[in-house]
């Protein structure tokens, strides 16, 4: 049986392994198709293609893009594009977001202090974290803040507590989240990427985001996303069945992958659960040997 993995990460974003190290695993697994889908960058894609050029393994250019959807944040997997053209769009996207994040950080810190919370002077942005999470972590690390929480709420706060009590929409420290919208992603990648897939719909992308509902998944498809990541290591059997149902009802494309980051307890490349292998996917220009599995 052929195996595939269309969702993995390297040190070009938040993965622990280099492209060279991933290449060795991909060869060992004897994948037929693979995709390096680093967050908001395609800097490692050409390297992977070059590393596998003398093999029969097919590399589909990919990237996992962060986008705003209403008051939430989601990830969109873009597949099969011209790497240079995609890099230009992603550069523009990152410049827009970085400018927004500086303003978001400044305002969020001001509101936190007005609410009586202590925030470290000169707190820096973390490129790999939402602004709210960076501030929430700093707030939680401060013993004076924790004493305040115990006195007023009867417990020490976690970052999730800080978010839902202070930073969530409607709360006193709420600031509009930085980011480009799903509509922006669709417009920019229209005609560039062959497929725009909703990544792990039932898995929140951070502690300050929420999983999608079935109606939201369908709304995103109506907006112009072309498919769903059905097979993922944090998606339950029941959720997979629901996603398969949506795929069949709408005749849309679907993918699967390990979401491998190189951590010790990660689901192995080519799998989405213990002893469950990604053996089926369907994209515009690529498909598995078992396109009728769903």
Q: Rg, please?
A: 20 Å
General form: globular
Indicate the structural class: alpha/beta
Quaternary arrangement of the chains shown? single chain
| CATH topology title of the largest domain | TIM Barrel
Give the integer mean of the pLDDT values: 95
Helix-strand sequence: EHEHEEEHHHHHEHEHEEE
- Please name the fourth-level CATH homologous superfamily of the largest domain: Metal-dependent hydrolases
Question: What is the helix tally?
Answer: 9
Stretches where pLDDT is under 50 for at least 5 consecutive residues are none
Overall strand count: 10
Please indicate the count of domains.
2
Strand order of the largest sheet: 4-5-6-7-8
CATH class of the largest domain: Alpha Beta
In this structure, how is the largest beta sheet organized?
5 strands, mixed
Q: Architecture of the largest domain, CATH level 2?
A: Alpha-Beta Barrel
Strand content: 5-15%
Distance between the termini: 17 Å
The level of helicity is 25-40%
Outline the secondary-structure elements.
Elements lengths: L3 E2 L13 H11 L3 E2 L10 H7 L6 E2 L2 E8 L2 E8 L3 H32 L16 H11 L1 H11 L5 H9 L14 H8 L5 E4 L15 H10 L3 E5 L5 H14 L2 E4 L14 E3 L2 E2 L17
Parallel strand pairs: 1-2, 2-3, 6-7, 7-8
Antiparallel strand pairs: 4-5, 5-6, 9-10
